[in-house]
Inverse folding.
């Protein structure tokens, strides 16, 4: 006779990433023994995470429950929604991935780069797809964002519909035949009964309605029409609509187009293959030909609009780019706004470009950029369309999540039905109630080189110390029986001070180490290596601080024989 | 018979700091054998100058010409105009410093802190002061800025007047009885004949007229009047008008005031002594009493409006402040805007405050801040008042300087009379011509601990490498005659990887070093220590990169016996 077990008929919704941050989105919707994962992104580390390449989510919850996973559904092809996939697949091979055409193409090239094409099944979605898993069914609705093919996800459960909007704005006049947001479908989901709305909070602080991409197109047309010399146009490589608009105007004005920057080249290749971009014959020319085309017949499309030091635009600005350098009369258009944290680097690139003689047009002073995320009015529109019983703001820092719940309350969601959660929090809900009941592991995992999670806060802290005042290493061989110093002490420093000009300081430091070792053996023979190392650290730290007011990391290397 | 020497009757004007940057202002006006220095500031280092405390100017030009120096004139008391004085005085004791009352008080406490009170003579200025040095005479004109007692400097030379505006805005309705800008005096200088105008370019990108401080006062009054709980008010400590306005409203509303943060305490002490601030008895209370006052009867004034991690506000937000922590219902007012580069830190503090339950009001969404620098219309007003023959934009990054010269040209200065210079460039001028004729040393000098200029780009580069992937040190004692390894090799890492969890990697690395040393001696006896060290670096670098895709700095320490 089988044991009677209590069946939990609640839906569990959690974010393994994407709350209190913009980046590394990853959400789970669970019902009985089934898990739907939505998105799997990376986050670019802030400056204080020294040497970290990417930050990804802690995947242990999904790895532990691998047998329950029905699939990974992708809302769109930005890195903060797909960038984690190679890291996830290494630990969780064999899962089904579902995504729209463009996102799928981007995922595919990512998998090829990482030799992971066989680690999963790729399934192409469009907004009419319905993926039926029995108790759970997944459907989609078209939205608009700064990359084509953006979908919101609806997970239909016996308790009601769970909506994850993905990143969105309401662009009612998208460009180049791309479809407008499907308001009818959103409204229909709202009529059918949305249990929980998880909605993009990025622009919760902006009290307006985000301008249409078409508006930017007009500005680009006006500005580029009046430019005489070369045009260098920088934007996010993934913003294919923007690239298309700039390319169209360039071609109308009889300009040839050259593409610089690996991700821009890849984006244009993808865009052409999928039919988003269409360049007449001979308009795209080889980078080697760039200096053969007259300036007023040329537009350069490039990466680097965020001031990234290794991107094409920074190298052009600094004169370290192989093919071109700035000549007076060039115009550089930043079709972008600096992400907070990048302002200084972007300003540095603008200054360098202008010093080299370029005229620079950037988003702050011209209408050559619009956001991909909806402002407060669009967030309210989404809430009014979906009429959710419960509301969870996602994809935003705390203050954005907070303002977003205030909007939800203004749109009729009761305060007690709004949940500002943290990564890992599990919201358990049914058609009557919702409550945070548990917590999954959801710490940041650092990727550095090919290591995932093998460095943590302790290693980062050491890097911070090293970055502040460098290091001083002291090396000696000591006969432990007698305390005799057989070789050394030798002193060496890095990142601390100019060694050559500090001979006297180094000599004195050497003496300090000598005395520190001798002192250890003064009263007794045989001391531990650890004790000698500690004595060296104390002595050197004190001595060097008294001389320099700096605190380099002391690295004692006593070899005992 | 004395040799007949050619006398150069040109005025030489240069910036040792303050061009293509915002920070470390320092200007020289020279005529015959006389030098007037204007301002002597520091710059706070950008993030990539790891471990650098301040950046100061290269003082060698003025040190070399110490006998010619008539005095150092200070426009106002901000760090980017006075912060370099202690460093200058250590190398150039005995000079005369001239400044307005508040700047002088701030300089005096700086000198006391550094034991330098006897290293110079301090002379108090007001706008009617005239300092006559014979051929040169220095006069002043009142301006307005985000600190009281701000002066522009006019150096009268036989060739015409040289103007350095200092930092300014045109605040026609300053608060608390502070005087408005002296338009009459500026106009009179303009009538007398300004040869060169050197003018503040900070807000050259802003196409408007900066709002008056009085406007901010009204917003603060409206906002604070409606707040029920505690108010935490954060602003720059030097913005005494702002502090006064917030204090006045707090007192009107029956609130007591507590001050947190060393620089805020010092500013208030100074402000009271000089009569800028006036607190009725019992309104300023001891920090220890902070928790005895009911929330609606309390305002906390504190530092940290730029998200500085060690300032009072960050510590309050993180719960690490000794006296207080956030309780729900607290309102925090950021009466400031983040300086570019600080946006991320400020956002972090706002998020932490809101997560702890505070309501946060910041400059972006409310009118609780205005700039201390004039926008384009005020820059044009200055040019129209001064009617300069030649124009040099100062105090700004390149793109600001460029826009500022465009404004000058719109206001009638011929294009060829506008000079966008670099630090060190020397503009030589007389009543007919002006030309950049030479260049003084003007590199950045880094201050770290008590060292000035003893670290440079090479040391910073080592810190950058260390901060990326940490270090691996390898130590061994080798008998050079035989190649016998007497002790070691020992391996140690910092900031590279969790050592404990990487035992196998460290073992393998040890073997690599062993083989590298042995290989050196394979074909011959006696090799150089340098050659062994190099072999270790090559071998370890290659090995560790193949295993981890990281490039830690390799520190070989072979002791030869």
């Amino acid at each position: 006779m089988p044991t009677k077990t209590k069946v939990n008929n609640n839906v569990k919704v959690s974010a393994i990433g994407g709350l209190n941050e913009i980046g590394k989105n990853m959400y789970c919707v669970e019902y009985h023994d089934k898990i739907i994962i939505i998105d799997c992104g990376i986050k670019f580390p802030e400056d204080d995470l020294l040497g970290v390449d990417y930050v990804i989510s802690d995947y242990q919850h999904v790895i532990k429950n691998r047998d329950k996973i029905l699939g990974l559904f992708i809302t769109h092809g930005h890195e903060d929604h797909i960038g984690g996939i190679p890291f996830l697949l290494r630990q969780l091979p064999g899962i089904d991935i579902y995504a729209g055409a463009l996102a799928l193409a981007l995922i595919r090239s990512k998998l090829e780069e990482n030799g992971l094409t066989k680690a999963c099944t790729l399934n192409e979605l469009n907004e009419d797809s319905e993926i039926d898993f029995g108790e759970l069914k997944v459907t989609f609705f078209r939205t608009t964002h700064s990359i084509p093919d953006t979908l919101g996800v609806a997970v239909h459960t016996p308790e009601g519909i769970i909506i994850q909007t993905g990143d969105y704005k309401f662009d009612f006049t998208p460009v180049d035949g791309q479809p407008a947001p499907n308001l009818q479908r959103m409204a229909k989901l709202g009529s059918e009964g949305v249990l929980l709305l998880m909605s993009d909070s990025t622009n919760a602080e902006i009290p307006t309605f985000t301008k249409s991409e078409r508006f930017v197109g007009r500005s680009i047309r006006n500005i580029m029409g009046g430019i005489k010399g070369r045009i260098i146009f920088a934007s996010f490589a993934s913003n294919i609509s923007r690239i298309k608009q700039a390319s169209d105007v360039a071609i109308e004005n009889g300009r040839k187009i050259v593409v610089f920057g690996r991700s821009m080249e890849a984006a244009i290749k993808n865009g052409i293959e999928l039919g988003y971009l269409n360049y007449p014959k001979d308009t795209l020319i080889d980078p080697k030909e760039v200096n053969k085309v007259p300036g007023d017949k040329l537009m350069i499309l490039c990466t680097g609009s965020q001031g990234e030091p290794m991107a094409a635009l920074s190298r052009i600005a600094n004169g370290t780019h192989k093919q071109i350098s700035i000549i007076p009369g060039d115009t550089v258009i930043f079709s972008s706004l600096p992400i907070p944290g990048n302002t200084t680097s972007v300003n540095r690139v603008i200054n360098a470009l202008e010093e080299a003689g370029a005229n620079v047009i950037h988003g702050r002073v011209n209408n050559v950029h619009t956001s991909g995320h909806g402002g407060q009015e669009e967030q309210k529109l989404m809430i009014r369309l979906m009429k959710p019983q419960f509301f969870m703001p996602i994809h935003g820092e705390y203050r954005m999540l907070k303002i977003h719940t205030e909007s939800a309350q203004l749109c009729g969601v009761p305060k007690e039905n709004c949940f500002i959660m943290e990564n890992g929090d599990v919201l358990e809900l049914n058609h009557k109630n919702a409550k945070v009941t548990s917590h999954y592991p959801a710490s940041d995992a650092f990727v550095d080189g090919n290591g995932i999670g093998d460095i943590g806060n302790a290693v980062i802290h050491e890097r911070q110390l090293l970055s502040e005042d460098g290091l001083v290493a002291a090396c000696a061989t000591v006969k432990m029986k007698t305390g005799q110093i057989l070789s050394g002490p030798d002193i060496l420093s890095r990142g601390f001070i100019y060694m050559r000009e500090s001979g006297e300081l180094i000599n004195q430091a050497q003496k300090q180490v000598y005395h520190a070792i001798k002192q250890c053996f003064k009263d007794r023979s045989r001391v531990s290596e650890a004790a000698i190392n500690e004595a060296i650290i104390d002595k050197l730290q004190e001595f060097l601080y008294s001389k320099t007011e700096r605190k380099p990391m002391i690295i004692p290397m006593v070899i005992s024989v």
User: Anything to note?
Assistant: The radius of gyration of chain B is 29 Å.
